[in-house]
């Protein structure tokens, strides 16, 4: 049995226990965990708490915060110590969630979808979170990263914005000026989730996959080696401390004006407004420069309800947050970061002042794409990858990147070792 | 003259090494976010702002973290002072078999690595329902604060003249009465100083606080502040405001113990 | 955890001063020797003994027991695997590497703390205006929460907008900013520097206190003999400080060897395990991949090292007392 399974298994016991062991009390406390913690976002959560409390006496919501990288580990720790928070809003990672659904830890959210009206939802998004026969989560936003570019720096260097790997590499080299402290690119190399995402994308773009369609590890291939060679080269044109970079550093490198380009989600727009408004007119976004093919990692932000004594109240709260007004309130501080999954919310997003004002920034972020890939289903011919959770928990890809970029290990050797580590980590995983 | 110059330049260098990081912390907490990233950096804020401090209390749970920390540290310090000074008094005044070995055990206990204790403590506390509990965390802190109090207070009690106690006993006081009325007042300065140290150690502790508490409503400052780093998108102003405020109890306590530290240590403190 | 710090007031005291007086009182046949006192003594010791038993001895035993198990955090019981965890440990290159890194970390931080601390103590022993303020200020790093210290240095070390890099570049010492914490080569020394910065005040206080009780006559005599300042330091000050420095070095070595927070919070043991000390390895095994047995085995090894160093300390004390 896989370790993480065990953990979730015991959590399931704890959950059932608390359902049986408690009766409805006068005051229903709900723990609400989210990694969405920009100050402007926190204000929204606080407003929700107040508004919901006045409308629903007896329910008190208590927001808790974790970082994007720590969210899943935090839930594990909570399972260890007793019980998880009732509601989670953010990216819970599909691999982990599939295990949680199988372990009967989650509340089936199908009734919430039906009560709101299935027709208004983006169907593929709902489908992606059907796990073990239940609606394991309701995604409220779809998202993919794009390339943020400083048009002024590209112009100054006489460069066009890049559309292929080769163009991007040449541009990054030319833009990098260590004396001035400006770097052409920003490829993360920390032991972080962002490093994993960026290396996934590079591998897909090179034509490779992490697992083949029989779900055997497929890292030791020419495509993966090519992807890693490119990744390592681009790291040379990235800031010196990328060895620690995860999400926030990759955004800060751009908003601090030190990186001429970075891969990031739509959140950078709000960061620019807060931290560096002078960069707004000099910024535009594009889709990733192409390798052998075009691909990007598609992800969701979603609501999850863990089984516990207050599951019923938790579902009500989720339903309330999924109302158009509330959904828009949630998205407003980081507008264009995610595309809402409810059709009725999209017009509000499109009328937002920042969206109106910066089409060259938001277009790549909110107009539909057809090359999004999810690591748990790397192609149409792949089944759901139940091994992904174990692969991800061991930081196989970030470690691979670190060994090449920081440890100067030859790409072929590093890839071979990563392949072995991945086989080791996933060989005992059962569906 | 030359000598004075040499001394003052050495002192300046020392001050730069010690005080500059502190200065930078306070400075950054008053800079607007746009100014933090600037190169060349500004050595005095161009625009002063209190926004980070306001946001710390309005938008984060810093206040709650601070109160939780205060609660745990006061509880564990109180317990440690009571338990530790009783034991220290016994070691200083009574002829108890195995006293010397016990004294050594205290010292070894004080040196115990937290990494050694955290795994069994976590397992035991979970059995006893002491995880996610301020009492549990306070008890865990006794693992270092009780040996510490015993070690220091033993000498303190030993230096209180025995004659006073004897006089009280002749006057008809009980042993415990003499401890309470005569010895304790003499030991107050020592109790305050050790108490402040025990408090500071608990205030600074990270590993136990991280593992034994996972409910964010019960979190204490050190793990809570590390959470700010990862959840505020590198809002250095906010983070430095939190660091500054977390240092405040330290600064206050420092003012209180300085007398005991720098002068009190003097002649008697160090042998060897 | 905080027990990795020695308090400033607990300057090493090999002998207990009360002993003599108590013994004297007892020999006078005074009230203190009454038999019931012994019982009272035991009663007063009981709470602390109970605390040690429950919170130190029992967990220690439980930890040792766990090191013979394969045990997951949520399993009610583990599987007895005998010495497997130790076999795994001894055959694991990461463990040996980690032991080495821990030793280097302890050696480097303590060595530099002693040198810097002694130098600063000598400086602060000189009379100058504002001395007491400076003495107070020097203690600050030691008193600050580790978390605050770590956060400050993360900001200072930053490669893009950190002021340390900016100053070094301006001074022409380095050409371009260095990613102090994210290069395997520099990360170790970057964390060592923070460790020294945080803890050298401890050495300052202890040495300063010792300096104040060195008889001035010794210096006067040497001055009359025409000894240079350096000669006076080597011939008088250093021998007088020798014992204090030895004890401080020993205690600080244990504290630094056991230190978890500074390195963990600055680098998490990375990059590429360049700063993976033993306490971090315990944490990673126990709470990263949930292998409690292996984590405990590493912790037990640390305990054995602690006992070895402490017995050196006790031997040293005994020699002193003789």
Structure description:
The complex is a heterotrimer of chains A (431), B (272) and C (322). Chain A has 431 residues and is α/β, with parallel strands linked by helices. Chain A has helices at 3-21, 39-55, 71-81, 94-102, 110-116, 123-128, 151-156, 165-175, 193-205, 222-236, 247-255, 268-275, 311-321, 324-331, 346-350, 353-357, 359-366, 388-393, 396-405, 411-426, and strands spanning 28-34, 59-65, 87-90, 130-131, 134-135, 138-143, 146-150, 261-264, 283-286, 296-297, 299-305, 339-340, 372-373. Chain A contains 20 helices and 13 strands. Chain A has a six-stranded mixed sheet with strand order 2-1-3-11-6-12. Chain B is mainly α and 272 residues long. Helix content of chain B is 79%, strand content 0%. Chain C is mostly helical and 322 residues long. Chain C is built from 14 helices and two strands, in the order ααββαααααααααααα. In chain C, strands 1-2 form a two-stranded antiparallel ribbon. In chain C, strand 1 (69-70) and strand 2 form a beta hairpin. Chain C starts with 17 loop residues before the first helix and ends with a helix. At the B-C interface, helix 1, helix 4, helix 5, helix 6 and helix 7 of B face helix 1, helix 2, helix 5, helix 6 and helix 7 of C.
Architecture blueprint of SSEs:
The complex is a heterotrimer of chains A (431), B (272) and C (322).
Chain A: H1 3-21, E1 28-34, H2 39-55, E2 59-65, H3 71-81, E3 87-90, H4 94-102, H5 110-116, H6 123-128, E4 130-131, E5 134-135, E6 138-143, E7 146-150, H7 151-156, H8 165-175, H9 193-205, H10 222-236, H11 247-255, E8 261-264, H12 268-275, E9 283-286, E10 296-297, E11 299-305, H13 311-321, H14 324-331, E12 339-340, H15 346-350, H16 353-357, H17 359-366, E13 372-373, H18 388-393, H19 396-405, H20 411-426
Parallel strand pairs in A: 1-2, 1-3, 10-13
Antiparallel strand pairs in A: 3-11, 4-5, 6-11, 6-12, 7-8, 7-9
Helix pairs in contact in A: 2-14, 5-13, 8-10, 9-10, 9-19, 11-12, 19-20
Chain B: H1 2-29, H2 33-36, H3 51-59, H4 62-93, H5 99-111, H6 114-128, H7 134-158, H8 162-170, H9 175-204, H10 207-212, H11 221-231, H12 236-264, H13 266-269
Helix pairs in contact in B: 1-12, 3-12, 4-7, 4-9, 5-7, 7-9, 8-9, 9-12, 11-12
Chain C: H1 18-27, H2 35-66, E1 69-70, E2 79-80, H3 84-90, H4 93-125, H5 131-138, H6 140-143, H7 146-157, H8 163-170, H9 184-212, H10 216-224, H11 229-258, H12 261-267, H13 278-288, H14 292-321
Antiparallel strand pairs in C: 1-2
Helix pairs in contact in C: 3-14, 4-9, 4-11, 7-12, 9-11, 9-12, 11-14, 13-14
